[in-house]
Amino acid sequence: MATETTTRLLTTSKAIAEAIGQEMEADDRVFVMGEDIGAYGGIFGATEGLLDRFGPERIMDTPISETGFIGAAVGAAISGMRPIAELMFVDFFGVCMDQIYNHMAKIHYESGGNIAVPMVITTAIGGGYSDGAQHSQTLYGTFAHLPGMKVVAPSTPYDAKGLMTAAIRDDNPVLYMFHKGVMGLGWMTPNPRATGPVPQEAYTVPIGEADVKRAGTDLTIVTVSLMVHRALDAAEKLAADGIEAEVLDLRSLVPLDREAIAESVRKTRRLLVVDEDYRSYGMSGEVIATAIEGAFDYLDAPPARLALPDVPIPYSRPMEQYVLPQTDGIVDAARALVNG
Amino acid sequence: MPDNEVLREMHRQMVRIRLFEETLVEVYAEGKSPAFDIAAGPVPGEMHLAAGQEPVAAGICAHLRATDAVTATHRPHHQALAHGVDMRLLAAEIFGKDTGLGHGKGGHMHLFSREPAFGCSGIIGEGIPTAVGHALAFKKQGRDDIAVAFFGEGAANQGAFHEALNLAGLWDLPVVFVCEDNTWAISVPKDHATAIEDNSKRAAAYGMPGRYVPDNDPVAIWEAGREAVERARRGEGPTLLEVETYRLLGHFQGDPQVYRSPEVIAELERRDALPRFERRLVDDGVLDEDAVKRVRDEARAEVDAAIEFARTSPYPAPESALDHVFA
Q: How many structural domains is chain A composed of?
């Protein structure tokens, strides 16, 4: 019997919570641990409603003890569970990174493939709302640099649900990074792109596949997470000038869909990378290197990038808005790239 | 009090562990003279041996089954062997061979086994939360398996230790924390590093019983271990044990041990648990001299076979370094 697909409009946070709930229904091994993920529903809503459905044994509020509970997730994963652990803000990784990069990410390798660590770390990323230097970073480049964990960062409710389902079903550790600005939270600046159509049924978005969010011919804008929204806004403005930008949403940083980057650049011959992470030694450099390795002969201009200048994120609004990539800045950079 | 069969088995474990470690002293030295080069010889890298600390492994692991999960440290051989990890696979991993536990990707500080369930970490204290996670999984799965976390007295000052104990106490998890107090955190003695004399008192802060076992006594360790393991298996929650033990060798092979005098080391050797325990078993009629010789001969044969297996096993293909990043 064919199943009828029901698609509703959901916010990204509700899409994530729906994916977790469906996987918990389907698989007893899945459970969630983290700070304020129970009655509160997660500070950013990723576990909203799940405590009532699954109870405190499977939706476990933890002490403020990230090394303890992320380490416990590693052990539980090795012993046959599929834990999801929430690191409230990615900026907090400093208090628990050893569990993440030395344990979660390395045990499968060190064991020669004998021990799997199937777990998900969910974490909030991003700035733009004056939360200061310790609560505004994206840091995906830091994690993507370290081998052994997959890293995903969805930009839409549809991708958020599909990537969460894929992350839970994956036999590897997955760092699932959701930008506070894409969650559709009532207490954040309204973002129409944070609400979108999401099928009710469980489905996966393959980890490691980029997605062309807007097709274009004149340049490729490669980006991820909230900056996809900025790039799409910029592309609309550019279209008014007759410049057709292709917006490639990486969705996953590990594995990186290098072929999608090269393929798009071979088509448009120009590359602009928009990155909300620090500029040096990060995603923007990796994407540009990938384009040069895979599409050097096609490039009509040197690749360009917009990223956080290498400074901590300032608190005061004018300074923060200055260091974060903005729609107008993307438009200007794209025009300069196309008009030479 | 353990029965005679248990005593003989603990003695057998201690003998085979000691012979394994003593043999590694020799094997590790191969290719490292006249100039010591840590990267040279059949066994390169750091080598942390547990000679002298056998009672902790033998006394605790006597109560475990293969499905109980053990996490250990940078000094893991005694617990790996006592928990039933195949000595040949352990030796081959130490030699970096393809037949090793991790196909040569882990090395002596990163040993992992599914059954018996064993893992270790080279980062001080950071293997303890993993044990809490094993215990959490067992509780969720309705199994009566338990987890045991071994760590040194130096690790008891790491945050991971305190976070792990708090979670285990809070969630009443079936885990036994075993602190091996060998006095020396590399070169720094316990009384220079720890605000209290007895780490087992720290159990009170986490709502669990704590017990200190002095003088590296295999029988006392076995008895304390039984109580803690049975308590965990009954679902009554975690226990913290601190066991006084003696590290007869340096922190690692090649350690000049400038921080402790030859007299201190001689005193540790005088107190070495293995000959003391052996004498006691002979005096009590649990073992006779023939039986002792038989245990040693069998251990010698096992260790020789393991080292031979490791020596003659092939190295992994260099490009296999690229495998197993992901499942």
A: 2
